[in-house]
């Protein structure tokens, strides 16, 4: 039998509810990467404190293990149940907000969600991104600018939404090609325009373990009507966000905590803006989505992240420091 | 489309790193079961504090999601990777210690581990539980008593160990029937005796995601030599424990934190005890395992659990109370 040399660490024995946590930290302390070591030190502390504070029972622990196995088992390349679990616990929104602190005046981010795909087609301005004949037509005319108010041309704008029944293309077993999604480029005036359908509220997939969890917590699985956007251009911080329709019944109780006031929009009609319907070739009563997106440069985002990190270091009494933009103990 | 009525809760919007936690608590507050609500309140608080304190990055969150999916994917009825994950983080030992506070003088519990099965055969005293011809023979002669020192007859004693190569029967793809495991009954003197092989150290399964995690943390995957025991009898608290061999190279660095000083034993030889080798029909140089197990009654265990709960209530400043033996907020 191959033998591993036991680590040169203080011996552990007689583990109790009081000393187990320090002993796990000790045995993890050989980890050569300071960030990984820090993450596990905090993770183990919180996990153990959770069990101690609640006096978690074996039966509850067993139920949690079974739940986690079920979440893993149902996961596929197109069904991301662990992301969904993170979403409904508010963790996804939190991590996004931590990693993308926004400067005043720039567009806020929100959850990516589990339905973004890598196979959306790159299309020309004005493209109809939805083939659903039952959707209510929507003209989107948006701008992409920097924090100085200057248009940014050539931004890759990834857009995705459900069909009129509230399902993304990937939720259909017979999906043959992308639908309700596309990638467009902003033009020389920073304008991105396309045709779509008016978003509708829809439930997150709730026929699996996460749906059962929501039911146990007496929570509804609905997301308010929204359209997803992802903006990418060299030199700019990638922005993942979404626009929400004002007045949606689920506007203030989103199952995945994605709504921010600055991202809630009123739809108007193409005819409301002089010459717009003619310019974009739609009827005047077509619903109109207008929004001015403002991107941060990579440098602006880096600075904002650093400032937020320094605030956290101060909050924790200066016992941490930054290494490669990540917090580690001093 | 079927609509769920949004809950009658304060509206949420503009979620930030500072208010997201309270908002998740608010949306979970409709949960009718106070214990579930309490568990999720503490879980979400710890999860969010972990992300805030470490300023968890999106890339790290993505790596964690992928890891959890992989842990779920590799799990089967005989490979319990999530239990293994809980084991190597010290959580299993902790939860067991919380749920089974021991009275002075009674036998301590330890981790169940992922290799217990439900199909072990019920055998007579003296049975050879291992078919491995390469194992070093071991005679086990143990007693099962109550905290007053009285023998307890008719206790179901579930025993399991690896073969001489460090593998449990369930780790062999061609396993046809249980091996290295059996269930025996204590006799009228509270004695349980059987033949087995001397336990050897072995690595926990480390060819999956948990093994990769241990490698990243620079931890070895070994458990010191041990034999598992589970004791069950109506009226007594179920005891899950194990005995460890003194002097094992991994005695003080067990990968799953199972070793307790009171469970470490010295093996002797059958010939060391007058008449024992003859009585049990083994050669005098056969290794001998002797141990006096002491069980708690259900009532003793309930009282010990309640006392520990009351201590935790006091530690948290009296804001909790007990309901059906579990902590909930007042």
TrEMBL record, chains A, B:
GO BP annotations, alphabetical order: catechol-containing compound metabolic process
A Pfam family this chain is assigned to: Dioxygenase_N
Keyword Oxidoreductase: yes
Cofactor or coenzyme needed: Fe(3+)
Keywords: Dioxygenase, Iron, Metal-binding, Oxidoreductase
Ranges for domain Catechol dioxygenase N-terminal: 33-103
An example molecular function term from Gene Ontology annotations: catechol 1,2-dioxygenase activity
Record-annotated Intradiol ring-cleavage dioxygenases domain positions: 124-296
Keyword Iron belongs to the record: yes
Family: Belongs to the intradiol ring-cleavage dioxygenase family.
Name of the featured protein: Intradiol ring-cleavage dioxygenase
Species: Stachybotrys elegans
Phylogenetic placement of the source organism: Eukaryota, Fungi, Dikarya, Ascomycota, Pezizomycotina
């Amino acid at each position: 039998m191959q033998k591993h040399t036991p680590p040169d660490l203080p011996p552990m024995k007689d583990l109790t509810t009081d000393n187990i946590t320090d002993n796990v930290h000790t045995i993890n302390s050989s980890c050569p990467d300071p960030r990984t070591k820090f993450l596990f030190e905090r993770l183990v502390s919180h996990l153990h404190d959770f069990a101690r504070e609640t006096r978690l029972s074996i039966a509850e622990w067993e139920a949690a293990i079974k739940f986690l196995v079920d979440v893993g088992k149902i996961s596929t390349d197109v069904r991301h149940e662990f992301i969904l679990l993170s979403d409904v616990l508010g963790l996804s929104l939190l991590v996004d907000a931590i990693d993308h602190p926004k400067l005043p005046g720039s567009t806020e981010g929100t959850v990516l969600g589990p339905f973004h795909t890598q196979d959306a087609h790159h299309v020309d301005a004005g493209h109809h991104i939805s083939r659903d004949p039952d959707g209510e037509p929507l003209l989107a005319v948006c701008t992409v600018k920097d924090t100085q108010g200057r248009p940014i041309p050539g931004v890759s704008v990834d857009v995705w939404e459900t069909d009129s029944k509230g399902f993304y293309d990937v939720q259909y077993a017979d999906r043959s090609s992308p639908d309700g999604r596309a990638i467009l480029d902003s033009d020389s005036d920073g304008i991105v325009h396309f045709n779509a359908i008016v978003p509708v509220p829809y439930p997150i997939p709730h026929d699996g373990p996460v749906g059962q969890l929501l039911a146990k917590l007496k929570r509804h699985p609905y997301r308010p009507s929204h359209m997803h956007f992802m903006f990418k251009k060299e030199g700019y911080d990638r922005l993942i966000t979404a626009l929400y329709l004002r007045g949606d019944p689920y506007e203030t109780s989103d199952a995945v905590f994605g709504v921010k006031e600055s991202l809630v929009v009123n739809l108007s009609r193409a005819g409301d803006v002089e010459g717009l319907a003619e310019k974009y070739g739609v009827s005047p009563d077509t619903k109109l989505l207008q929004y001015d997106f403002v991107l941060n440069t990579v440098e602006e985002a880096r600075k904002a992240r650093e400032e937020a990190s320094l605030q956290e270091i101060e909050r924790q009494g200066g016992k941490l420091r930054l290494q490669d933009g990540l917090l580690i103990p001093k």
